[in-house]
Structures are given as C-alpha cells and as structure tokens.
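pls design
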C-alpha cells in the first residue's frame, strides 16, 4: 500500500499486505499451520481447534465436546474459553504478522501474557542449548533479573562515563571488547545468549550502531550463542518501520515483541507519564510474543513454555484488529509524517538562544524521540558540553 508513492507499512509491496490478510478457513489447514508456526514448547493435550467454551466444557471445530479438567490452568472458576490447545485467534494473528518478520527464518511463535516474554525467551535458550548464562546489553528488565544474567554497558557515552564527543566507533569498539572479555571469562560454552534492545528504551532512547549489532551477531556465531532482539518498545512502527532490526542488517535468533504503535509517543528525560505510555500489541489487552526459528523451537520439550494467561484468545483477537488497523489506517506512514513535524518543532526550540543552553540532545527516529536536558547533578554531568551550574537541580 502506498500514498503519494511512499510505502506505508515498511514492506516491499502490496503482496505483503495480501499475505498478512490471508486467513485459512478449513480446520485441517489451521491445524497444519499451527504445527508449522506454533512453538513446540507448548504442550498441546488435544489435537484440534478450540471453537467454544461454556462452564466446564469446551467444544472443538468438528463437533467434539470435552470436559475440561484444568479450568484454564485454574483461573476460570466461572467457566472459560481457554485451553492448552490451538484456537483460531492465535493462528490468525500469526498469519497477520508472519509476512512482517524481519527475517524469513523467524517462523515459530509463542503468544504469552506480557511481562514474562523476556523470561520466556531466556527459557527458550536454555531449552535449546542447555546453557545457563546470559549477557544483557541495555534491555529493560520486565521481570527481576534471573540468576545467570549479566548486564553490560550499552555503546553510549553516558554508560561508559566518557565525553559526549566520543566517536561512535570508539564506543562500539570498547563495548565489544568488554563483552568479548566477559564472554571468555564466563566460558562461552556455558553462555546461551546475548539479549539487546536495538533501540534502547527506558535507558534514554539510544540507537545501537549497526556495527555494534553486527559485532554481536559475529560474537554469537563465534561462540555458539543465540542473539535475542528485544523489539518490545521499538517494534510495530513506533520508529517508522515495522521492525527496525530488519534495517540494521542483523539476523535475530529470537525476537521479543509486545507494544504496538500509538499515534504519539515522546520521551522526556527518560520518563513518560502514564497517559503517554505505549499501548500493547493488543491495544491494552495483555499480550506479548516470542518469535524464533523452527529448527530451534523443535528442540524444546512440550511443556517447556506456557503460562496461566498465555495464548489468551480475546487478547489474540484484539491484536488481530490492531494489526489490521495498523495497515488499513496507514499508521506507519503517519508516524513518519508526525515525526518530521515533531523534530521540526524540537529543533526550533533548540535554536532558541534562551532555551538552547538547557538542551543537551534531541535524538530518536519516528515517534520514539528523546529530549535530554542538562543538569549539574545528573550522572556524567561533567561531560555535558552545555551544562550550566545554575540549572534547576530537578530539571533532569
């Protein structure tokens, strides 16, 4: 889909949209699709497509009616429409998003209920490689850090305690050196994965240089580790592309997704108020996803992955509607247009001599935009080139 000659969704052409909107109709086709694209780590007790649930009974396409002993893993005390099985919303959501994956190898999906997606990705690594250690590069900890996870500095001058004028190549080289050194000390044979946000979210809206991401890919290939890309905040159009890792020339082994694009989202001083928080993949319904390669997820034992509210049919149905709106309403194209407006306005402020001394940086892409203010008491303030000692201490 194009407007004024511009691609509006980040895909190659309209064929992508047609593929995304294709929905299998027959039960047999859906079951076959599920066997191909649903991670083996989910333990499905019943072969079939769940169609309805009432009280203690569930019904499947084809007419089967079964007594459901687990009650949605013990949560649907008044009756339910959840089961450890396949259902149409789960599979149709996979169909919608499959054409937009940043690499064709990402074809095995697990939908879970939100914050534990990172944890599920790490568990997936453990199941695939039988390794227990992990290295984290600037990933927002959506759950408390698990044992065996070591955090490393992002290639950003603040995190290295260096002047802001330090060239990106130096920061990248230093970060990769430290990471390689740690990987050797921790024993590469015991390290399962490196996990990174390609665009740092809660840490200040910082873009990882392509050469840094490529260096991580090379390090993972060298030591037999998996590369997990966290696109929870930066994916689904918020930066003007469907998934930004696709445009960095790096192939993920596992990708974590969740929060979908909203019309306007700006970060001020690494903080965003509740009314400005990004909406989820299912526009408020708890849903996230872990996408990987089928050759990896086939190594998982059934039952490795799961969760009380994982695969929620209502959340999956909501996500289908959101994905359709993203395409039909040209949201990503609108992000690019609004981004140009926003940066224009911010640069005007930056050019104002009465305001400029208090603005250290304006950065980001799309509608993931940060304005960093100077502050005499902030970490690394001694390196801020425009720090004023009389700046309010609470400014940033």
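designed seq:
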């Amino acid at each position: 889909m194009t407007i004024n000659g511009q691609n509006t969704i980040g895909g190659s052409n309209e064929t992508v949209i047609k593929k995304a909107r294709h929905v299998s109709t027959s039960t047999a086709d859906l079951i076959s699709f599920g066997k191909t694209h649903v991670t083996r780590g989910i333990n499905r007790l019943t072969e079939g497509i769940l169609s309805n649930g009432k009280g203690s009974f569930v019904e499947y396409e084809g007419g089967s009616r079964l007594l459901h002993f687990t009650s949605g893993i013990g949560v649907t005390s008044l009756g339910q429409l959840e089961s450890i099985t396949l259902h149409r919303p789960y599979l149709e959501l996979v169909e919608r998003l499959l054409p937009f994956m940043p690499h064709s190898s990402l074809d095995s999906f697990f939908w879970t209920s939100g914050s534990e997606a990172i944890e599920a990705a790490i568990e997936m690594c453990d199941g695939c490689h039988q390794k227990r250690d992990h290295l984290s590069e600037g990933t927002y900890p959506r759950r408390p850090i698990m044992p065996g996870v070591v955090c490393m500095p992002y290639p950003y001058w603040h995190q290295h305690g260096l002047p802001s004028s330090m060239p990106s190549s130096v920061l990248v080289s230093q970060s990769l050196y430290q990471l390689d050194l740690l990987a050797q000390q921790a024993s590469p044979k015991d390290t399962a994965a490196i996990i990174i946000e390609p665009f740092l979210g809660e840490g200040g809206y910082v873009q990882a240089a392509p050469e840094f991401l490529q260096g991580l890919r090379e390090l993972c290939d060298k030591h037999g580790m998996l590369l997990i890309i966290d696109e929870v905040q930066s994916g689904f159009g918020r930066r003007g592309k469907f998934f930004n890792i696709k445009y960095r020339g790096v192939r993920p082994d596992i990708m974590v997704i969740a929060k979908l694009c909203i019309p306007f989202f700006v970060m001020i001083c690494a903080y965003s108020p509740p009314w400005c928080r990004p909406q989820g993949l299912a526009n408020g319904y708890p849903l996230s996803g872990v996408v990987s390669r089928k050759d990896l997820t086939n190594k998982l034992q059934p039952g490795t992955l799961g969760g009380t509210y994982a695969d929620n049919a209502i959340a999956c149905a909501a996500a289908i509607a959101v994905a359709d709106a993203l395409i039909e309403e040209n949201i990503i194209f609108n992000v690019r247009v609004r981004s140009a407006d926003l940066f224009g306005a911010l640069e005007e402020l930056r050019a104002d001599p009465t305001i400029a001394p208090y603005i250290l940086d304006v950065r980001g892409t799309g509608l993931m935009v940060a304005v960093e203010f100077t502050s005499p008491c902030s970490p690394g303030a001694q390196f801020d080139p425009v720090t004023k000692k009389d700046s309010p201490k609470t400014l940033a």
